[in-house]
Specification:
- The chain is an alpha/beta fold and 385 residues long.
- The protein has two domains: 2-281, LarA, N-terminal domain (Rossmann fold, 3-Layer(aba) Sandwich); 296-381, Alpha-Beta Plaits, CATH 3.30.70.
- 33% of the residues lie in helices and 23% in strands.
- The strands form four sheets. Strands 1, 2, 3, 4, 7, 8, 9, 10, 11 and 12 form a ten-stranded mixed sheet that branches. A two-stranded antiparallel ribbon has the order 5-6. Strands 13-16 form a two-stranded antiparallel ribbon.
- A hairpin with a 7-residue loop joins strand 10 (200-212) and strand 11.
- Helix 8 (184-198) crosses helix 10 (253-260).
- It binds iron/sulfur cluster (2 copies).
- Residues 314, 331, 333, 337-338, 351, 356-362 line the site of one iron/sulfur cluster.
- Ferredoxins are iron-sulfur proteins that transfer electrons in a wide variety of metabolic reactions.
- This is Ferredoxin.
- Keywords: 4Fe-4S, Iron, Iron-sulfur, Metal-binding.
- InterPro entries: 4Fe4S_Fe-S-bd, 4Fe4S_Fe_S_CS, DUF362, PSI_iron-sulfur_center.
- It holds the Pfam family DUF362.
Length: 385
């Protein structure tokens, strides 16, 4: 039975968050749990979610107050702490500065590492991929603590503890993975293998203010007053998706694959939830990115075929678009799916949907939130929203 701590935290006051995190660690086993998690003299890497160069306090990225509260506790067990990420776009150092995390890190003597240095490693007993190019910093750390945000995600439905480690893939290689693995099931296998390579030790999921709707970047902030923490990443994610309305946790691709491959605990009966009760913490009317029923088909190939017919299309909200062409730059497909046309004296993107793999990198990284996903008629008919 995997244990997770489910905590109610109503604001981003750092002292309050620290108090809640200490309560969570107490529930999980207290000082002895922490000593086992962070052995003496170990090098600890904190892996926040930067996504891009984004203003501090935004619900898109790991909140600086959560980061500070975590640092205060981890510092009692290690004097060798680093933090870093490889965001989907933009300069990592600028992202760390803008997010407010760099300032916190400097105050506490936590070193910034960018994820540009890579290493080539072999994973024993993978679900899918044996050989990996990943960032050196997380691979060489003794303890990796992931600090994700709770958000919707157009491709993966939800992003949290498992998905946050995609930032351990350096820079442009992320786009290559999208091209190689256009469907959510195989992409999930890759993400789980990646977490096995990195040996992610612990997750602290920030759902104090989560994101609903057009996530992971351009959705709507949703106050959920929630922190979830635990060693088992899939147990943390499974608990989170139950809170936002996915009663069938297997409808989330990462969790379905983790369950089928026995990668981690996924089913509610495999998870002991300490602290608050799920029923009391459920968020009413959370706006999901999309319904995930398609993943329940028995055959993976049928799954993928139906998903390709029902996956939504990225579309532009013309009034918000500034014609910066970022969406085309981040699109991993060649030839490019996005071209630009003049309309109402503006230059706006136009998609060739037959070549689009629905990775939604364009939607995720549009700096103006000008791209949303639009469900197709067939998916509406099938009750997939
Ligand atoms: S849709 Fe977004 S990324 Fe694309 S051109 Fe418009 S503002 Fe830029
Ligand atoms: S157009 Fe957008 S969703 Fe389609 S492949 Fe390119 S980045 Fe992915």
């Amino acid at each position: 039975m995997e244990k997770v701590a489910l905590l109610k935290c109503t604001d981003y006051d750092v002292d309050n968050i620290e108090k809640k995190l200490r309560e969570g660690f107490e529930l999980l086993g207290g000082d002895s749990f922490l000593k086992e998690l962070i052995p003496e003299n170990s090098k600890v890497l904190l892996k926040p979610n930067f996504l891009s160069v984004i203003e501090k306090g935004s619900p898109v990225i790991t909140h600086y107050a959560v980061f500070e509260a975590v640092v205060r506790i981890v510092k009692e067990y290690s004097s060798n702490i680093v933090f870093g990420d490889s965001p989907g776009s933009g300069d990592t150092k600028k992202a760390a500065e803008k997010s407010g995390l760099m300032e916190v890190a400097e105050r506490y003597g936590v070193r910034f590492v960018d994820f540009n240095d890579q290493t080539h490693v072999e994973l024993k007993n993978p679900i899918m991929y044996k050989f990996w190019n990943i960032a050196k910093a997380p691979y060489e750390a003794d303890v990796v603590i992931t600090l994700p945000k709770l958000k919707t995600h157009a491709m993966m439905y939800y992003t949290g503890a498992v998905k946050n480690q995609f930032g351990c893939v350096p820079g442009s290689q992320k786009a290559a993975w999208h091209t190689k693995l256009p469907d959510a099931v195989n992409f999930s296998k890759m993400l789980l293998d990646l977490n096995s390579v990195v040996k992610t030790s612990f997750a602290i999921l920030d759902g104090i203010i989560a994101m609903e709707g057009n996530g992971p970047r351009n959705g709507t902030p949703k106050k959920m007053d929630t922190i979830i923490m635990g060693k088992c990443l899939t147990a943390v994610d499974s608990t989170a998706v139950r809170l936002i309305g996915y009663d069938n946790v297997l409808s989330i691709p990462i969790l379905k694959v983790a369950h089928d491959t026995k990668w981690g605990a996924v089913m509610p009966e495999e998870i002991e939830i300490l602290g608050e009760k799920v029923e009391n913490m459920k968020c009413k009317n959370f706006k999901l990115s999309r319904n995930a029923k398609v993943i329940n088909f028995v055959s993976p190939s049928l799954n993928n075929f139906v998903a390709s017919l029902t996956a939504p299309n990225p579309v532009v909200i013309e009034e918000k678009c500034i014609g910066c062409r970022k969406c085309s730059e981040v699109c991993p497909e060649k030839p490019k799916v996005i071209s630009f046309v003049k309309h109402n004296n503006k230059v706006i993107p136009k998609w060739n949907y037959s070549n689009c793999i629905r990775c939604f990198c364009c939607q995720e990284l549009c700096p103006k939130g000008a791209i949303i996903t639009k469900n197709k008629q067939l998916s509406k008919m099938l009750g997939l929203k």
